[in-house]
Amino acid sequence: MESILDNRTWRYATKKFDDTKKITDQDLDLLLEATRLSASSYGLQPYHVFVITDSEIREKLKPVSWGQSQITDASHLIVFANATDFGEELLDGYVQNVSQTRNIPEESLKGYGDFMKSKLLNLPADVKNNWAMKQVYIALGNAMQAAAELKIDTCPMEGFEAEAYNEILGLDEKDLNASVVLAVGYRSEEDETQHYAKVRKSKKELFTHI
Questions:
Q1: Cα–Cα distance, 136 to 103 (Å, whole number)
Q2: Around Cβ 202, how many Cβ atoms within 10 Å?
Q3: β-pairing verdict for 176-185 and 47-52
Q4: Superfamily of domain 2-83+125-206
Q5: Where does the Nitroreductase domain start and stop, copy by copy (predicted)?
């Protein structure tokens, strides 16, 4: 039980990565699988995750990420991109997946599929975009905690120009938008931030029991 809190205390937003240390394929697979298993509303996962190791692409992304060194120095750069808009294809694809995964006749899921459509398809495009982005952050949280359990350092990043990311990664034509970036790897011994005490609200300030 103590490891739950130990891992959360150990992790911090790493400001300087050791660019000589790389995540093993095995640990990367575990990290990505934990991300894949993340919860999402209706189970729809309205996003796509890009795992970037290509040095040329990362060099292009660095200037539009406020010049932050994590972009190029981390072992891997993970870009979470939410669906900017969607139609029946997202929901129908999910219903088909449920049918195949659970060996349930697709026609028996029609009621649930119609219910989802009634709640989501008529939403304005900007509301769909915001809803999908919220789902991304659930996956981000799961990825960060899984990384901490693997003693992999992370830095979640919103300090970047989304439009530039979309252009460099070709996201616009895929109806995707770069919503948050997660640099993953191993902290540099020179990163003084790792020695800072973690600052959070007290339990009394944060929680209300009713």
A1: 28
A2: 7
A3: unpaired
A4: NADH Oxidase (3.40.109.10)
A5: 10-186
66 backbone φψ class: left, alpha, beta (φ>0; ψ -120 to 50): left
Q: Where are the domains positioned within the chain?
A: 2-83+125-206
DSSP letters for 129-177: HHHHHHHHHHHHHHHHHHHHHTT-EEEEE--S-HHHHHHHHT-GGGTEE
Residue type, 157: M
d(CA 191, CA 10): 14
The rounded distance, in Å, linking the Cα atoms of 176 and 178 is: 7
Distance CA 72, CA 16 (A): 10
Cβ proximity of 184 and 76 under 8 Å: yes
What confidence category does residue 109 fall into, taking pLDDT thresholds of 50, 70 and 90?
Answer: very high
Q: What is the mean pLDDT of residues 82-89?
A: 95
| DSSP reduced 3-state for 15 | coil
How confident is the model over 114-169, as pLDDT tens digits?
999 999 999 999 999 999 999 999 999 999 999 999 999 999 999 999 999 999 99
User: In the structure encoding, which two tokens stand for residue 72, read together?
Assistant: 């190029």
201 DSSP assignment: -
For residue 91, give the nearest of 81, 83, 102, 103 by alpha carbon: 83
Q: What does residue 149 show for φ and ψ, rounded to 5 degrees?
A: -65, -30
Give kind and range of the element (H or E) at residue 181. Answer: strand 176-185
